[in-house]
Write a structure and sequence with these properties.
The protein is α+β, with helices and mostly antiparallel strands and 334 residues long. 35% of the residues lie in helices and 20% in strands. The protein has three domains: 2-97, Rossmann fold, CATH 3.40.50.20; 127-192, Dna Ligase, domain 1 (2-Layer Sandwich); 195-327, ATP-grasp fold, B domain (D-amino Acid Aminotransferase, Chain A, domain 1, 2-Layer Sandwich), CATH 3.30.470.20. The structure holds adenosine-5'-diphosphate and magnesium ion.
Length: 334
């Protein structure tokens, strides 16, 4: 099959577009793109590099492809940016891997996602959205449980989340929210801090979706609050240990699995996703967020998890591709 690969490379986006030092954190490296292309090639397909943005638009209209393997994160700071490429593919009626535009747009909006999963009975930490500067003063009067973590409402890859993101009172919260509103040009949210284990869960497939693994992320140095922040993700080899399967009680693992599958279904995810949880000291998994377009590079959590579960990178890419192809009756799997 002729498979197009859509992606956004860090280096193709002009540095002057950046308003903060983590502006390109979610974009991929050429090493990741080449690795995925090699995996698709090894599965017997011919790969066309489509890139992202305007380059993608030109190529998708002119290069004939049967299917697109999509890892493009989209452009700008719009909360629907991950839906850009899938929307165009649907317009052109070209089959593609991963979730549809509606799912991708919802899941990048953390507060909206939390509302939906909470309505399905999945526990998620208390939260409050601050849309603009006018709403800043409301933080003073609201009865919010501190400590809280302050984060941008529509980001991923720990963008805007640092070791200093935990606030102990309303005054600190106001200062931090104000700086995030200015830097990230989008609403900010405060969320109750769940002190406890950090676990990320991988899901692959559709009918039915299956748990790939549940991986606990353990700080090498025990501190006050462990946060899996940008500083930690950039220096993960020195700062964390990954434990997969997670050495948690069977009861907790069962709850994690049930909550993950419920969230995946409620949000309409397809083919793959990675979900982040914190486990309270009482053993309750609290849903933080879901990534329907998780990183697939060597240093990404889903790939680290897959390796620990005995899968090679190629097997992981093939599993995603096959899950997607099975959804399209018109595609003949090669
Ligand atoms: N409510 C919370 N309680 C404890 N830690 C949190 C909370 N929210 C975020 N964190 C920490 O910050 C990290 C990144 O937050 P997350 O919501 O997953 O954003 P991102 O989309 O950037 O990955 C989490 O993996 C976790 O370590
Ligand atoms: Mg996360």
């Amino acid at each position: 099959m002729r498979i197009g690969l859509s992606y956004d490379l860090k280096e193709t986006i002009a540095p002057q577009q950046a308003s903060c030092d983590d502006a390109f954190e979610e974009y991929d490296s050429s090493e990741t793109v080449e690795l995925i292309a090699a995996a698709l090639g090894a599965a017997g397909h011919t790969v066309t590099m489509l890139g992202g943005g305007r380059e993608f638009l030109g190529k998708i209209l002119h290069d004939k492809v049967d299917f697109v393997f999509n890892i493009a994160e989209g452009r700008g700071t719009y909360r629907s940016r991950e839906a850009q490429v899938p929307s165009i593919l649907e317009m052109l009626d070209i089959p593609y891997s991963g979730s549809d535009p509606q799912c991708l747009a919802i899941c990048l909006d953390k507060p909206l996602t939390k509302k939906l999963v909470a309505s399905e009975g999945v526990s998620t930490p208390k939260w409050r959205v601050i849309n603009d500067r006018q709403e800043l003063r409301q933080i003073d009067s609201c009865d919010f449980p501190f400590p809280a973590i302050v984060k941008p409402a529509y980001e991923g890859s720990s963008k805007g989340i640092r070791l200093t993101s935990v606030v102990e009172d309303a005054k600190q919260a106001i200062e931090l929210v104000e700086s995030l509103l200015e830097k990230y040009h989008q609403p900010a949210m405060m969320e109750e801090v769940i002190v406890g284990d950090e676990v990320t869960v991988g899901i692959i497939g559709n009918s039915p979706p299956k748990i790939l693994g549940m991986m606990r992320i353990l700080p090498k140095q025990k501190g006050n609050y462990f946060l899996y922040t940008l500083e930690v993700k950039r220096n993960y080899l020195e700062l964390v240990d990954y434990e997969c399967p997670a050495g948690l009680e069977e009861k907790v693992l069962q709850r994690l699995q049930t909550s993950s599958l419920k969230a995946f279904k409620a949000l309409g995810c397809r083919d793959l996703a990675r979900l982040d949880f914190r486990i309270s000291t009482a053993g309750v998994p609290y849903f933080l967020e879901i990534n329907p377009l998780p990183g697939l590079g060597t240093h990404s959590d889903l790939v680290i998890m897959a390796k620990k579960m005995g899968w090679s990178h190629r097997q992981l890419i093939s599993a995603v591709l096959n899950a997607a192809l099975e959804r399209y009756s018109q595609c003949v799997c090669v």
